[in-house]
Amino acid sequence: MKKTLYDKLWDAHVVHEESDGTAILYIDRHLLHEVTSPQAFEGLDLAGRKLWRLNANLAVADHNVPTIDRAQGITDPISKLQVDTLDANCEKHQVIEFRMNDLRQGIVHVIGPEQGATLPGMTVVCGDSHTSTHGAVGALAFGIGTSEVEHVMATQTLQAKKNKNMLVRVEGALPAGCTAKDIILHIIGVIGTAGGTGHAIEFAGSAIRDLSIEGRMTLCNMSIEAGARSGMVAVDQKTIDYFVGRPFAPSGALWDQAVSYWKTLHSDEGAHFDRVVEIDARQIVPQVTWGTSPEMVLPVTGRVPDPEREKDEIRRSGMERALEYMGLKPNTAIQDIKIDRVFIGSCTNSRIEDLRAAAAVARGKRVASNVRQAMVVAGSGLVKAQAEREGLDKIFIEAGFEWREPGCSMCLAMNADRLEPGERCASTSNRNFEGRQGQGGRTHLVSPAMAAAAAIAGHFVDVRNFR
Ligand SMILES: CC(C)[C@H](C(=O)O)[C@@H](O)C(=O)O
Ligand code: SF4
Predict the structure, then answer these.
(1) Looking at ligand 2, which residue's alpha carbon is closest to its atom 6?
(2) What is the model's pLDDT at position 315?
(3) Mind listing the pLDDT tens digit for each residue in 302-339?
(4) Of 80, 185, 225, 231, whose CB has the highest number of CB atoms within 10 Å?
(5) How far is the CA of 128 from the centre of ligand 1 (A)?
(6) Which pTM value belongs to this model?
């Protein structure tokens, strides 16, 4: 039988299957962070259990860590408790953890692949919805809840039901100035935030093959924003090359064995997909969200929509509410929207190529005077160090950006980095929900190059003709 990539990954991990399709899946890699692990450790302790396969687990604190003055420790008491609890739990159970001042610390979805802890062919889970990121390397990766975190710790398995197969095929050359972020925002604009519900999405087509592994991670990262718990891309030579020499990756004879398996990780020609969406990459324009859901997205050349022209009543009231929250008037040109803050970071866009793209725009320029703060937050200590070797930190600092320590930061404002009520932010993160970046804060999702250009101009601009 012809199989999709998802079918292959699924079948390779089924330990047991009931007649109603409920399955027990073997989990190869379990990633942990401080927000969703405390109750799981507590449950384990109460039951007097140990972790089933200790070295399948890797932990890092990312949501609550400060991005400045780390030498002083964590000042916020709630954040400090979360991080201290993770440290104590990992120490007690001997789980490998990259602590706050470890160079390898960073956002869990950045460090997994960076360390080679995530590998092609693996099942990867984490108590975090953006675990879909890891599917970019041909892994089956999805977010789980806290009780499932405990289940994985105790048994190395998970109860799950298979999703349907969905193919999003993106063909054609992506125009200059557009990135993986624009592809995924465009896809979400087309299929909606429920478009992938109940499906595992495979992204394929020439535009996807042309992306770097980092770009594919950006794409898969936002699968959850398209309604799918997992997104994936087939293994190709780029995937294999990406893992050469990574600390947790196999070496020697095991490497050769792994590579020959990884090469089978693609959908068979003619395999069945329950749903297929075709996207023409040549039509994609840099994207900017205008509302409070990632599907409320437009090309930068567009205008804020007018609810009066919306016939569907539910959609109209949703638009009205979003416009009110966002403080926007219908028909305003996107490029006339002024911003107060800029955030370049998050597990969507904080890898080295994201920082390079933003720095290329910021080089030799200055952040506009109406922009109160522009921050660059690398996804990991290793990304930050690499950027510094390339002199990107200097480019940002000379342009007036702040150069911060790695973590989730203003993606969701669990630490001190947050918007003030009414502030408007150009952000490279993945969610623009009400209050996401701080109570009353207004988020516009964009690519790193678009965020940097907005910082310099003080309003959104089309990075394709920004000089
Ligand atoms: C805190 C965590 C559970 C959450 C998630 O699951 O995604 C967070 O990372 C987010 O991005 O909203
Ligand atoms: S960077 Fe944002 S989206 Fe990613 S894990 Fe952290 S909070 Fe969630």
Answers:
(1) 408
(2) 94
(3) 999 999 999 999 999 999 999 999 999 999 999 999 99
(4) 231
(5) 5
(6) 0.98
Q: How far is the CA of 36 from the centre of ligand 1 (A)?
A: 9
The number of the ligand nearest the C-alpha atom of 345 reads 2
**Ligand index nearest the alpha carbon of residue 417:** 2
Paired sense of beta strands 57-60 and 140-143, if any = unpaired
Among 35, 129, 229, 434, say which to mutate for ligand 1: greatest number of ligand atoms within 8 Å of CB.
129
Q: What is the pLDDT of residue 340?
A: 98
Q: State which residues of the chain have pLDDT below 50.
A: none
On the CB side of 112, CA atoms within 13 Å amount to 36
Tens digits of per-residue pLDDT, 139-172?
999 999 999 999 999 999 999 999 999 999 999 9
CA of 129 to the centre of ligand 1 (A): 6
The whole-number pLDDT of residue 467 equals 83
Could you identify the atom of ligand 1 that is nearest to the CA of residue 430?
11
Cβ(130) – ligand 2 distance below 6 Å: yes
Protein residue with least CA distance to atom 3, ligand 1: 128
CA 102 centroid distance within chain: 22
Instruction: Considering only the C-alpha atoms of the chain, give the largest distance between any 2 of them, rounded to a whole number of Å.
Output: 65
Domains parsed from the chain with CATH numbers: 5-162 (3.30.499.10), 164-236+267-283 (3.40.1060.10), 287-465 (3.30.499.10)
